[in-house]
């Protein structure tokens, strides 16, 4: 049996009891290490689970899946994923390979950033398509996420923006020279994401259109959701582009229409209470009751 | 401290280690008992957690919140919710009352049906607004969920339909006579939801419009997600209206545009393989690559 086990979002103890018991009976345990991170590293997990973990990077999962599946038809293998195994990233490819190899699979679910963001008080019901915001470079500044957020807002929906993670990236020079030297991991902050979004807002100058994203659009910044030191901030896009939410992982929400109860919840996390006091005046499209 | 603790979706062991440790140190433990259920009852949870649970029905949470918050400023109180505390239902009202009463709160997340449905292979990214389908009566047959599903499909998005739960309902006669006698709980099945949806499809006769929901629209039925005996079925709306997925809870997904990898995953759960073989011919709007 191949077990896909979600680790949740905070630290080693966010695993479910069922997940922990399963890890302890498996012959091999892989840790998927390229789509998300916990606030603790591999060593802390190994110590708490009492098992050695095999780091599975993207190359291993995509190109050496046979190794992961080896023997899983007669013994138990665990594949650990931060969050939920079918949350922000699906592992459908590995499931399909398992089925093809005659290996049964089972999923042990956990919280994902896709549902845990509900803790800020916005209704999960009212989220539209989720978008990813990638790091811009000097020569590559994709804006497609902006159009998706705009489309969600046109339907009154909130947008969860998952922020870029770069692990095991090579510099252009090392890539060209074929040197397997990797840059330190980078995790996009709420501040960086808001700055990129703000740059598009300024370039497009759609500020006076009814459903546009403006400098005053209410956003929610979330950092380390589920951890003891999680941080949630709410405010305008401009405020968010100045906010420091500390270490990764960060996520950003761009609101759509809001219910008064949602506003009351967001107010608890306001960077500046005046923003919410003046909400009806500055950005009426986000406050329909 | 008031702890909101998600129990996950299956049985007693789907709680996180952190959640379990927290329950065991709290002075009072409430179990929210009106928005969802596990596959095991209150007694099994009490035995596993080693704590007495106080059932909190809607009336208690909405009208007697002071009782729940009592003493939570100086001791620890737990409020347990099936799934995630801010998943399908938010408990914002209780959070706001806690803040007003000077009681701190913390959330211990878990899987919610809102993210666990990803196990069928559809990308969570590509879901639009979530809808609720309520039990129709002879005189009340609301169709608003149909329009929301249609709107999601028009954007290529999938729709998660949460199915009605009736607990502590009174018959009209008992209600009128003021007798606090409650009907047995009822949980809508995938079959019932699909039948109601099919009735709307037949009435509206939009079958030839490009983005309409038709008898042949591909759906996913899910039952007891996260439990040992979970069941996932995929097929047309017509097939779903005949399918028996066993005991509750059930959820239904109406697909939008699908990626080939999503199709490959859904095929694993096909009620009839021929449905997926002929997919391009019968319902091209759902299969864009």
Automatic annotation (TrEMBL), chains A, B:
Top EC class for this record: transferase
InterPro entries attached to this UniProt entry: 4pyrrol_Mease (IPR000878), 4pyrrol_Methylase_sf (IPR035996), 4pyrrole_Mease_sub1 (IPR014777), 4pyrrole_Mease_sub2 (IPR014776), Dphthn_synthase (IPR004551)
E.C. number(s) listed in UniProt: 2.1.1.314
Coiled coil spans: none
Pfam families to which the protein is assigned, alphabetical: TP_methylase
Record-level GO BP terms: methylation; protein histidyl modification to diphthamide
Residues given in the record as S-adenosyl-L-methionine binding sites: 9, 84, 87, 112-113, 163, 225, 250
SUPFAM superfamilies according to UniProt: Tetrapyrrole methylase
Catalytic activity from the UniProt record: 2-[(3S)-amino-3-carboxypropyl]-L-histidyl-[translation elongation factor 2] + 4 S-adenosyl-L-methionine = diphthine methyl ester-[translation elongation factor 2] + 4 S-adenosyl-L-homocysteine + 3 H(+)
Keywords linked to the UniProt accession: Methyltransferase, S-adenosyl-L-methionine, Transferase
Entry-linked Gene3D superfamilies: Cobalt-precorrin-4 Transmethylase, Domain 1, Methyltransferase, Cobalt-precorrin-4 Transmethylase, Domain 2
Recorded superkingdom: Eukaryota
Record field: transmembrane: none
Pathway assigned to this chain's UniProt record: Protein modification; peptidyl-diphthamide biosynthesis
GO MF, one annotated term: diphthine methyl ester synthase activity
Domain Tetrapyrrole methylase as annotated: residue spans: 1-240
Keyword Membrane: no
Role this protein plays: S-adenosyl-L-methionine-dependent methyltransferase that catalyzes four methylations of the modified target histidine residue in translation elongation factor 2 (EF-2), to form an intermediate called diphthine methyl ester. The four successive methylation reactions represent the second step of diphthamide biosynthesis.
The family this protein is said to belong to: Belongs to the diphthine synthase family.
Protein name: diphthine methyl ester synthase
């Amino acid at each position: 049996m191949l077990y896909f086990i979600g680790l949740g979002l905070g630290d080693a103890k966010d695993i479910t009891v069922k997940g922990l018991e399963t890890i302890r009976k498996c012959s091999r345990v892989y840790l998927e290490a390229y789509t998300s991170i916990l606030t603790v590293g591999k060593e802390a997990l190994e110590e708490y689970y009492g098992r050695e973990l095999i780091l599975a990077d993207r190359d291993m999962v995509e190109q050496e899946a046979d190794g992961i599946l080896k023997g899983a038809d007669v013994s138990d293998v665990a594949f650990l994923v931060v969050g939920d195994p079918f949350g922000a990233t699906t592992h459908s490819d590995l499931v399909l390979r398992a089925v093809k190899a005659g290996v049964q699979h089972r999923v042990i679910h956990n919280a994902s950033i896709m549902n845990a963001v509900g803790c800020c008080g916005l209704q999960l019901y009212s989220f539209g398509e989720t978008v990813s915001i990638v790091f811009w470079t000097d020569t590559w500044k994709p804006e497609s996420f902006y159009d998706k957020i705009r489309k969600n807002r046109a339907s009154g929906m909130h947008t969860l923006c998952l922020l870029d993670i770069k692990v095991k990236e090579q510099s252009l020079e090392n890539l060209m020279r074929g040197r397997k030297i990797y840059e330190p991991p980078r995790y996009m902050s709420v501040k960086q994401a808001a700055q990129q979004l703000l740059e598009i807002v300024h370039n497009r100058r759609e500020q006076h259109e009814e459903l546009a994203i403006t400098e005053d659009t209410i956003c929610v910044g979330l950092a380390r959701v589920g951890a003891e030191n999680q941080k949630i901030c709410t405010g305008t896009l401009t405020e968010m582009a100045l906010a420091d939410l500390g270490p990764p992982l960060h996520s950003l929400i761009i609101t759509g229409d809001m219910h008064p109860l949602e506003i009351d919840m967001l107010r608890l996390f306001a960077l500046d209470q005046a923003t919410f006091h003046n909400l009806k005046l500055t950005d009426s499209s986000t406050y329909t009751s």
